Amino acid sequence: MKEMIEAEALYTTQVSLWLTRILCNGIIHELAGKGVFRKLAAALGGDRGRLPRLLVVVTPPVDILNPEEDQLRTHKPATELVRRVYDNAKKAKHFECMAWVDARLHAQRKQRLQCILQQLVHPSSGEAAQVDDEKELKKKIQEHLKGKKFLIVLADHDDLTPWEDITLTDALPTDYSEDSAIIVTPSMQHPVQLHVWYAASWFFLGRATHYKVHFYSHLDALNKKANELLVGSHPRKDEVHAIVKQILKKCRWDAFSTKMVLQALYANPHRSKAELETLLDSIREFNTVPNARNIIRLCYDDLPSQYKACLLYLSIFPLGSKIRRTSLVRRWAAENIITKRYDLSAMDEGDRAFSALLDRGLLLPCRIDPADKVKSCTVHHHVLSFIAEMAREDNIGNTLLPLALSRRLSIRNGIQVLELSKKQQGTRSNACWRFHGSSRSRRSEDSQGPLDDMVTFLNVLHESPRLGLIKVLDLEDCTGLKNRNLKNICNKIFQLKYLSARKTSITELPKEISKLQDLETLDIRETKIKSFPAKATLPPKLVHLLAGDIYRPSNNDTGSTESYSTIHMPPGIGSMTNMEILSHVAVSESADELQHVGQLQRLRKLGLVIHGNSDRLLSILLRVIWKLECLYSLSVHIEAGGKDADMNTKGITISPPKSLERLSISGNISELPRWIEELPQLSKITLCRTSLTESDIQFLGKLVNLRYIRLRHESYTPKKLTFKEKEFKRLEFLIIEGTIISDITFEQYAASQLEKMVWTPTSMVKLCGLEHLLRLQMVKINGNCNMDDINMEAHPNHPILEIIEANATATASNAPALQ
User: Rounded mean pLDDT of the chain?
Assistant: First the structure.
């Protein structure tokens, strides 16, 4: 909070100084034009005498809408408006010279000058890339703009004085057309910035000034978006829209409330006139917290009862926690908060609940994968405050537990754990174990203290009676955890359904693991556990077994020498008929347990690490997976050395599982298995160390439903990758990282549906044919790129181009796409 206040104060001071300078210069230039104070004007304003017109287009800090539907479009309404102006002016040839600068990608003055020069000259000339000196850049820009009518746009800047980089430097000539202009669209991060720009607009009312601030936000962008969200068949659309317009007007100074109103309309565009009128009556201008709570209540009341319980469960997490999607959904299922519904499993229904909370803005995305699926989330402090109060009223949650324990334990065990915690008074000071109750702090937890508290709790667990009501125990990242702690857990917390020891120092599982008769999820990823205890049986109700640890040398950027270690296939796996996820486990040379995997008819996700005689093991594996009718994800890591493994079906006539959607292969193989063309649902492929050839890529290009390809290190051997005509017809996402590929070409009509491309090369690269990708929305290159053949300005869809060079600077320009 202190840092935010300081940042806002600095911003206000900087802009105020700038406004004062502009006002003084404007007065002096006006007097100078009348022959008064000419010498003073020359001294203060140099020999320029005037500046091009500057139009600032401002919109409030509101981001919408569904984080899983369209993460590619990150530009503000003001930028989109200016983009339309820019495009129309370009088509009509209103300006002799035009340049668009994405300030987020070009944060430094030199980068922006290079970007402008690149667009003033022919894109293939490479002139801007060859100029590294700022003075030379300014000189060349002046030469190109001299005597001409130009338009320069600086979009989405969030730095303090970008106008100094363009309008008040020597970069512009003194001889240019009176109708030349510069347009700036500031990126608003805090409401105070909007207030400052509102004040700035009053500085520019005089006719003599060339500066103008235009607010494109409240009744323009927001009402336009709200109108788009309301269903066209709504019986009272005009009346409802009028109410929404009034709601947005009252919330116009509050970014959170404004966003939540739009999210509410997005999630349910059929909202009645009565409920919107009730919301309107409850909202007051400049009443931020009450307004936020009323709008959150609107979104909350709209949820099904199970989804409400899922949201209230989040009250146990401290403010600022980053919550992994899959872990959260598994915890919901373990607590029976979310259950099987019709043909959907509890996990699938939980995933729907997660998406519903995202749609309403009740969850905020933290990490998003390349395919735009939200992988982790956090909770806004307004939402957390609301659900914490609701949980207390309904007596839900660990409100009496220390903050260190509440997020790691299930929500239905407060009394038992409270009794146990009294024994900790002898090992920790009273201050450490003071329970804050309903008024406890919701700040982000300290990384060291809470972990010590959790270990202390486990250390006295052996002295306690059995805690049968605890269903969830999440020990991820709990430092100081010992093997004996896990043994105590198995002996005392016998009704556990969810147990995570991920990223802990645990090295072995106790034989008492078999006592956890109700355990459904066991997560031991990123640990050193290698095997199940001898003569121990698996918990009979186990549904998710998650294991595996990837080792990467610290000095290895490409990951080409990474190795995968994991637990060996547990004995008696064939009897685990409830198993849905088995990932990743190592297969022994005998393959005895591997053959029993075919009995797991509910198995949906399988991950295997293969050592030794890979051909024999792969042959058995293929026979096994052919029996798994529900399998949708298969991951195979081949660690064996020697000759390339053969994954083809020699002598096997059984059909592969028709439900398989995702396939990941890591290791040396002779060629891509040809049986994958028999998989009608296959949409996602990840390859690593497979050493593919051009013929393998052509084979992939014929797969009719392939939407996502990820080529990791050593997955493809040639340096040039060509996507040929009419291949990859459904491909939408292309991820290439750590390969020797240095030249990618898209022929006409190839990958016609491609929307997003991320490329992390190991050397200077060349990228051609992007103009053929008419659906393209974003290209991100993490490395050095030859810009001669990339002309995004001419692309009809105006995709976002982001280039992060090896020295962390960007050198390419792009114009943003419109929604």
Answer: 78
pLDDT of residue 124: 45
Q: Poorest-confidence range of 189-193, 221-225, 506-510?
A: 189-193
The pair of three-digit structure tokens given for residue 818, joined into one six-digit string: 């419109």
Task: Tell me the CA distances in angstroms from 653 to 402, 626, 814, one per residue in order.
Answer: 59, 10, 52
Residues facing 586 on adjacent strands = 568, 609
Distance of CA 396 to the CA centre of its chain: 30
Please name the amino acid found at residue 608.
L
318 pLDDT more than 50: yes
Domain ranges in the chain? 48-216, 220-301, 305-393, 685-819
Q: How confident is the model at residue 399 (pLDDT cuts 50, 70, 90)?
A: low
This prediction has a pTM of 0.78
Lowest average pLDDT, out of 120-134, 444-458, 687-701, 742-756, goes to 444-458
The CB-side HSE value for 736 (13 A sphere, CA atoms) comes to 24
Sequence letter at residue 250: K
199 confidence band (pLDDT: 50, 70, 90):
low
Please check whether residue 248 is in contact with residue 218, taking contact to mean a CB–CB distance below 8 angstroms: yes
Q: Comparing C-alpha atoms, which of 157, 163, 203, 161 is closest to residue 14?
A: 161
Mean pLDDT, range 421-430, rounded to an integer = 48
Q: How far apart are CA 816 and CA 102, in angstroms?
A: 8
Determine the Cα angle at 202 with ends 200 and 205, to 5°: 120
The C-alpha angle 247, 816, 797, rounded to 5 degrees, equals 110
CB neighbour class for 22 (10 Å; exposed up to 12, middle 13-18, buried from 19)? buried
Amino acid code (one letter) for 651? G
Please count the other Cβ atoms lying within 10 Å of the Cβ belonging to residue 274: 9
Axis-axis angle for helices 2-33, 38-45 (nearest 10): 140
| pLDDT per position as a tens digit, 536-548 | 888 999 999 999 9
What is the fold, at CATH topology level, of the domain defined by 305-393? Arc Repressor Mutant, subunit A (1.10.10)
Residue with tokens 């607009």, as numbered in its chain: 201
| Cβ atoms 775, 755 nearer than 8 A | yes
Residue 412 sits at φ, ψ, to 5 deg, of: -110, 25
- Strands of 452-547 (E only): list them: 472-474, 498-500, 521-523, 544-546
Residue 273 CB-density burial (10 A; 0-12 exposed, 13-18 middle, 19+ buried): middle
In whole angstroms, give the CA distance from residue 689 to residue 637.
10
Strands (E), 6-71: 53-58
Res. 77: pLDDT tops 80: no
Distance CA 563, CA 642 (A): 16
Locus of tokens 């800090």: 61
Give the CA distances from residue 386 to residues 261, 289, 329, 389, 400, in Å, rounded to whole numbers and listed in that order. 16, 10, 21, 5, 18
In CATH, the number for domain 48-216 is 3.40.50
Under the banding of pLDDT at 50, 70 and 90, the label for residue 800 is: confident
Q: Which amino acid would we find at residue 789? A: D
Q: In terms of Cα–Cα distance, which of 701, 742, 735, 706 is closest to 721?
A: 742
Distance linking the first and last C-alpha atoms of the chain:
34
Strand stretches in 671-770, DSSP E: 684-688, 708-711, 720-723, 733-737, 743-746, 756-760, 765-768
User: How do beta strands 364-368 and 374-378 pair?
Assistant: antiparallel
Q: How many Cβ atoms from other residues are within 10 Å of residue 415's Cβ?
A: 10
What is the C-alpha separation between 580 and 586, in angstroms, rounded?
A: 17
- Max avg pLDDT among 181-190, 588-597, 639-648, 722-731: 722-731
More confident site: 87 or 128: 87
Residue 718 to residue 385: CA distance in whole angstroms: 55
How far, CA to CA in Å, does 605 sit from each of 146, 401, 583? 64, 36, 7
Q: Three-state SS for 487?
A: helix
Residue 327 corresponds to which tokens in the numbers above?
Answer: 């872990």
Q: How confident is the model at residue 597 (pLDDT cuts 50, 70, 90)?
A: very high
